[in-house]
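Field: COMPLEX_INPUT
Field: COMPONENT_COUNT = two
Field: RESIDUE_TOTAL = 812
Field: MODE = joint
Values follow.
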Amino acid sequence: MIEMERLSKQFDTLLAVDNITLTVQPGEVLALLGPNGAGKTTTIRMLSAILKPTAGRARIAGYDVATQGHMVRRNVGVLTEAPGLYSRMSGREYLDFFGQVCRLSTKARKERIAFLAEAFKMSHALDRRLGEYSRGMAQKIALMRALLHDPPVLLLDEPTSAMDPESARLVRDTILQLRSDAQRTIIVCTHNLPEAEELADRIAIIRQGQIIEYGTAAELKARLLGPPLMEIRLLHAPHNGAVALIERFATVSDYGADWVRYRTPDPTMTNPALLRALATSDIPVVTLSEVAQSLEAVYLRVVWEGKQGNGELGMGSGELGMGNGSVE
Amino acid sequence: MSAVRIQQRFVDNIGPILVIVRRELKDTLRDWRIVLPIIVLVTAFPFLANLAASRGMEFVNQYGAKLIIERLLPFMMLVVGFFPSSFSLVIALETFIGEKERRSLEPLLATPLTDLQLYAGKLIATTILPVLASYLGMVVYLLLLKFSLHWQPTVELLLVSMALATAEALVMVSGAVIVSSQATSVRAANLLASFIIIPMAFLLQVEASFLLFADYTTLWLIALFLVVLNVLLIRLGIRVFNREHLLGRDIDQLNLSYAAHVFWEAAWPHHGLKALYTREVPALIRRLWPELLITTVVTIAGGLYVGMWGVARFPLPPEVFDTTTISSLESISSMVSESGLLTTFSPWAVLFNNVRSLLVGALLGLFSLGILALLLLLAPIAIVVYIVAQVGKIGFDPWAFLSATVLPHGIVEFPAAILATAQAMRIGDIILTPSDEGGGAVGIIRELGHLIKLMGSVVVPLLLIAAWIETQITPQLLLRFLGH
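Field: COMPLEX_OUTPUT
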């Protein structure tokens, strides 16, 4: 598991990470979202024991990143921001080199490379020089490198960037499988918001080194975009009676020629009761559906409001907006 | 601990180093931009050198000066060894920073490798090719000489040449790897490479002069010095290697105001004169005791050895000591002025000369880990020993001569010089053992500030007293000693 406690990193005059407290449990995927320069990569580098925290502490699989860096690095698989491959080596040689560095036996290296090549559909390309790989293939090899020693913790920076849709789907499925198969703890940094929503159990939005929002996608949407938005389509144009009726059950946010949108904190209770009332009042309903509220809307709102600096959504000194306690 | 566990620990520690060495070597040998020039340098250049040697031999044979060209042949051997190794330096120069620029360093830093394994692996890998290229160039040259001029070196010459070529390549690579691990770009690393290659090129010329006189003892000493320097550089490299700095530092920032602040804080007596002499200076001197001890022992023992060696090797004829020319204070003054050592024989001129020498020593010490500062103080002691001993050989009482001409001012001047030189050594030591706080550059600036504080508060006042004694009292004692 990953534990961060008041973790900070100062570079000369720049406070890149500011007092982050966060825990990611085994079998959990956390998505770190944030604009460029928000501190995501610095956080990943501290968690992989490449950078030392200037304040606070972090533990990976029970090892302290500042004092037990060697053991931390044994237990994490890191997909770096750029694949950073050795262009004159073949894919097989490259993975074999990292396998040796991770002290895997010859047999284990062979088996693991073959397994990962199969999983990522890269068997055909392993003997080609890395310099000849496309960006997406290079990304796959980098991901295979991170998984080579089967680490319990994965830190993935933009895992599907530059991949075609099919490859990205493959990688996302692999990440989900890794989480469920072996109870891995995974942090994913991404700018791909649908991907974050699909992969992550929890999402942390980071800005200027601070976590400004944290929770599941549903929690974030509810907290930031309000209760679920429902749309009801009627057979005839809504008259005052229909709108007034709906308002008895929920808050009407808008209505048009043959539709009404309303918000309700508990659709499972509200919707059946509303439908019954409409039927009783002889108002025919064509459809009733939830209006999708995207994570992108949440993200943009959080980042925008953070920029405004109104403090409404900020979490002060890194506590995560869940009362006074830190997030577990 | 059982043998099996020791063996396992050895494998655990050394194994990853060898993995890096193999990868780096393989990668380098696949790069034709590096391999091709090395092949050219180890084959074509020895051929040209051999051609020049053959022509030279033909030319000097006309005048019966075969010995000169025969003494130059080994020098050419050093040169053909030096060229490929200096070219191969590019591998060491970009070993860390090149990987950083290609963005392949971070995945490596995120592996379980320790700093030492990573550094050692890179260092060994980048050493092998320059050393082998150097040997290969020398072997090709010697084979060509064997066939063209039927000349072959003696075993000792061959061994000392190989030792020098190896030591030079090692020092250059160790220096280059440090540069690579500290620079922020390959371009900056290449610029800094001149600070490695130029001193080595100078050293090569020094070696040439010793080869000309077949002074193999000195050449062995140079090789030994280079090996020691190499050990110090490796130690320094490992100490300053920091994966965080390597990855995090992208821009060379020159914070002049901070540097000036550090210097000012160290140099200026902020708490007044009383605190300066009761607390600050004693604290600085207490901290300097290892350097004071080394400076005192090395300069006195070294000065005695070199002075006595000079007496045995270059004895002066008695007529050199013509005491009749020293008859008055004016004659002493004019002798000093004519010698060119001082413009005038005055306390201020002596003081200026001594302060300048110590500051030059400190500056040289900065670039030589303190060694040249020591040598600069050792030299006048050796000269004093040499002259006093020569004076004793022509019938004067050497102790009386020493007491009359050196001790009166020397007893004040020597401690001052020892103190300044010890501080210069400390500056050199800071380069080798930089503190974590603020890095090596800050430490050097702080120690330079301390040097100025010690110079201003202790060294210069003592030197002024010594200069007054030297110009006002010592000449009178000399005249009395000579019976005038």
